[in-house]
Amino acid sequence: MDLSGVGVWSHHLRYGDPGEAADAAAELDELGFRALWFPDGGGPIFEAVSNLLTATREIVVATGILNLWMHDPAGVAASFASLSAQHDGRFLMGIGVSHSVAVNNEQDPGRYRKPLAAMSAFLDELDGADQPVPAESRVLAALGPKMLDMAAKRARGAHPYLVTPEHTRRAREALGEGPLLLPEQTVILCADREEARAIGDGWLRGYLALPNYANNLLRLGYSPEEVASVSDRLFDDVFAWGDEEAILRRLDEHRAAGADHVCVQVITADADVFPRKEWRTLAAALH
């Protein structure tokens, strides 16, 4: 499983039209991207994994992430074993604890608690399944030092989301030299700051309403006022925006900080449309 180079992170690959997702995945494979990543809000996640694996030949398909609160570990292990065997071990399982607002509900308002303990217990069950999910075939969504430590000890590495090159530097220090570090980088191909803010401001504010992400940025040294207002400094550090060269410079910054692989999430003015033109533009720049 080659987890070098650059991958694509996209909600379209999970929640868009399955036919177009498969067609796009095949093209991304041909364009030379190394992995496909997509999110999980519950439901038949392995149907999406199978759809993308079946449509491709070489590219790794990765969950970014599988929400551990929403799936039975025994079923997860069985599905992983089946799909991995069918598709030459190209399935990488990213696992995460998600966010309280996405997990708690009226029937169980306190379901989200002790996320570190929940992750440890979930991994215990994967290890104890009839067909265990090997540690080298899973990575953990990790932002803070304790989850990064678990990613180093109980998985192949970490998949941090909504992070900066400075976070990548700190994460590499926490993980050490062995484990993989596979950060997500959101990008906007645009002409200027005004266009970038028009596309990205509301998107970023939605994520900063989630304590996990806001707290991570506070740990990195941004002030509460910067987080609340989405300051230009914070915006510029979280997003890579501008032309292809600007995007490539940011990817290089992550690599220099210790990333093994960076997955780019392209956002555009129309979130419902697969950003296939932008993916092609980035692939041409990369190669």
Descriptive overview:
By secondary structure, the protein is an alpha/beta fold. The protein is 50% helix and 15% strand. The protein has 14 helices and eleven strands. Strands 1, 2, 3, 4, 5, 6, 9, 10 and 11 form a nine-stranded parallel beta sheet that branches. Strands 7-8 form a two-stranded parallel ribbon. Strand 7 (157-158), helix 8 and strand 8 form a beta-alpha-beta unit. The longest helix is centred in the last third of the chain and has 16 residues, at 193-208. The chain is globular and about 55 Å long. The mean pLDDT is 95.
**Helix- and strand-based class?**
alpha/beta
Biggest sheet, open or closed, and with what strands and sense? 9 strands, parallel
Please give the alpha-carbon distance between the first and last residues.
21 Å
CA radius of gyration: 18 Å
Count the E strands: 11
Overall average pLDDT: 95
Number of helices: 14
Tell me the overall shape: globular
The percentage of residues in β strands lies in 5-15%
The ordered string of helix (H) and strand (E) elements is EHHEHEEHEHHEHEHEEHHHHEHEH
Report helical residue fraction: 40-55%
Q: Would you identify the regions where 5 or more consecutive residues have pLDDT less than 50? A: none
